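Annotators were shown the component list below and the corresponding predicted structure, then asked to write short factual statements about the assembly.
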Amino acid sequence: MSEHVDTTARITLDGDWSIGCVTERLNELIAHLGSLLAGRGAAAPPPKPEICVRNVETIDASGCQLLAVFVRHLRRHGFAPAIVNPPEHFRSCVSLLGFDDELEGTGGAGK
Amino acid sequence: MTAVSGETPTIDISSFGLVFFEECAEHLAEMERLLLAIDPGAPDPEELNAIFRAAHSIKGGGGIFGFGDMTVVTHELESVLDLVRGGELGLTRPMVDLFLQAADVIAMQLAGHRDGAPVERDAIERVCGALRGLLAGTAAHAAPSVAPLPDGPPAAEARRYRIGFTPAPDIFCRGIRIENLFDELAGLGGLTVRGEVAGAPQLPHLNPELCHCRWELELETTAPEAEIRDIFEFVADDSDLAITAVDAPTAAPAAGGEEPAPRQGAAPAPENRGGREQAEGSIRVGVGKVDQIINQVGELVITQAMLAQLGAVLDPVLFADLHRGLQQLSRNTRDLQESVMSMRLVPISLVFSRFPRLVRDLAAKLGKEVELRLVGETTELDKGLVEKLADPLTHLVRNALDHAIEPPAARLAAGKPAAGTVTLRASQIGGKIVVDVMDDGAGLQREKILKKAAERGLAVGDQLSDDEVWQLIFAPGFSTAETVTDVSGRGVGMDVVLRNVQALGGRVAIASETGKGTRITLSLPLTLAILDGLAVAVGAEKFIIPINAIVESLQPQAGDIRTVNGTGRVLQMRGEYLPLIPLHALFAIGGAAERPEAGVLVVVDSEGDRVVLQVDALVDEQQVVIKSLEENYRKVPGSAGATIMGDGRVALILDVGEITSLWRGKSRERAARA
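Structure shown to annotators:
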C-alpha cells in the first residue's frame, strides 16, 4: 500500500499586478521562491506549488510577464506549478495577451 | 521592499501623453481639412479612407492611453465612416456636417484631458445619438436584396496577417496598455495571440518594469495593412513590428512552431502611412527645450560680442591669429543662431487651417455666401507668434463676415457677385511677417464711424484723415454694428486685436474704400528673440535701432533742417519734409548734441511713415538678443525691449512706430500750448 504524501505548497497572490506595483510583486515572488527551494528535501519529491490568484485585483501585461517568468523559473527548478482560482478579469487578460501557452498546465489560466 | 535592479526606469507617462495629444490634434486637423474638401456627391474613396484612418488612429490612441471617453465617440464615427467607405451608406452634406461636429466633440474631449477644459456631456450625447441614428437607419434599411452602390469600392476580401510584435523595453513605463492594443486588433477581425517570455532574464535578475516579451499574432481581417499599422502608430516603431500577409488564408500553417521573425529589418515598407511618412525625417522636441537652446545661444552671442569688443583694441598685426579666430567665432555664432532660430519657425498654415471651417459655418449661420482664399500658407514665423496670432485673426475674419461682406441680395444689387471673398494673405517682407485680412465687402463707413465716435465723446472732426478715422475703430468698446449678434458687434474685438498684435511687437494698419472692401494689415516681427540692429550713441547712452526699419543715415547741413512753428523740426530731403525726432529730448538724456548738424540723422520707416531720428553717432551694426523689459523691469515707452551689449551694459531697443506716435503726441501738445 503506497503512502499518499501531500506535497502541495500554497502560494497566495493578491492585490495589484500592474506596472505600478510589479517591482514590489517581484520581491514577493522571490521570497516565495526562496521558501520553496529551502523547503525542498534532497530525497523527497519536489512540492507542487499551487498559486492562488483569486484575490488578484488588477493585472496587466507587465503582471502577466512577471507571472510567466515566475512559472518558467519554477519549472526550471523542477516544480510543477498550477495557477488556481483565476477570476474572470485575470483569465481574460491572460487570454487576450496570449499567455495561455506560457501558463499552460498551470490549471486554469487558459482560455 | 526595495527594487531588485538599479535599472528601474522613471515612469513619465505624461510626456508620452503629450505626444498623443499632439498627434491626435494633427489627426483632427487632417480630418477636418478632408471633410471640408470632400464632395458629398462624388466622394474620393482615398479621402474617405484617410478620414476613416484619422478617426481610427484617434480611437486607438485614446484606448491605449486610457481615454475611454474619446474612444466612444470615435467608435461611433468610425462605424458610420466604415459604412460610407464601403458604399453601404451614401454620403450627404448633413452627414459631413455631423462628422465635423463629431470632430469638434473629440477636440473638446482632447482639450478636457490635455488642459482640463470643460467638457459638455450633452454635446457628446447629441453627436453620438445622431451617429447611432445613422447606423440604425442603415441597419433598418439593410436587406439581402440591397446591392452595393455601383460606384462604391468592391468589398475587400479577408486576408490573414501574421504580426510579430517585439515592443521596446520601456513600453510598460510609457503607460501603454498592450491589452487595449490587442483589443483594438481584435476589433478588425479574428485574432489569435501568443505571448512568450523566453528571452526574459531569470527571475532574480528581472526588471519587471521593462518588457521582455514578444508576441506572435495572427489576424484575419478585411482591413488593409495600413489600418493594422495605424493601431500600432503610437506604440511601435517599424523595427518593433513585422507584418506579413499570408496569401492563402485557409491553408496558412498555425502560428505554433514558427520561428519568431527577426526583430531587425523584418518590417516591410508600409504602403500608406499618412502622416507617419512625414514624421520619419523628424523628431518631436518640446518647445521648452528649444527655447532653452535659444536662450543659451543668446548668451553665447553676448559673450561673443564681448570678446569681439575686447579683441578690437588689440593690435591687428601682433594678434592676427586672435583676430581671425574672433571673426570665425562671430561667423559660427551667427550661423548657429540662425539654425537654432529656424527650429522655432513653423508655417502660418497652422493658423490658417482653422479658417475654412470657421468661414463655412459662420457664412451658413449669417445666410451669406463667402469664399475664403488663403495665400502664402507656407510663410514661416515663430511658433510663439503663430499661437498668439490665432485670436486676432479670428476676430478679424469674424468681423469681415459679419460686418463687411453683404448679404447676397445686397451684393447683387451693388453689381457684385453674390458670393463675397475673404482673403488671408501672409508674406515675409524683410525681417517682418505681414498678414493681410482682405474682404470685398462694403468697406468702412467714415460718417458712421465719426458719428459713433462723437456719441462716445471722442474728440473727432471732419478734418481727420481717413487713416485717422479708421484708427477710431480700435477704441475699446467701439462698434458701429446696428445689432449685437453672437458673432460680433459688441465692440470687444478690434481693441483686443490691436493690443494683442502690439504685445507681439507688431502693428495694425487699415485701408478701406467704401463699397469696395477693407484690408487690415498685421505686421509682425519674424522672431521674438533676436534682432539685427544698429547701435547708436546718444550722450552716454546707447540704443539699438532695428535694421529693418532703417532707410538711410546722413550728416545734415544746417540748411537741411527747418523749424516748423510749434511742432518741432523737419529734415528737408529730396523734396520731402520728414519729422525730426531728437532721441535725447524724447528720453531726457543730458550731454547729447543739441543741434542736428552736430550729430547723425537716421531715417527710419514706420509702417510707410518716414521719420528721422537724431543721434550723436553710429556705433556698430550687430545682432542682439532681445530681453523683455516687461518681464525684468517694466514697460519703457518707445522701446521694444532691451539687450545686453558687448561691454555688459544694457541698451534699449527702439520701437520706431511707438517713438513716432510718442513724438507726434508731444508735438500736438506743444502745438496746442502754442
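Statements collected:
1. Residues 287-312 of chain B form the longest helix (26 residues).
2. Confidence is low (pLDDT under 50) at residues 1-13, 142-155, 248-280, 483-487 of chain B.
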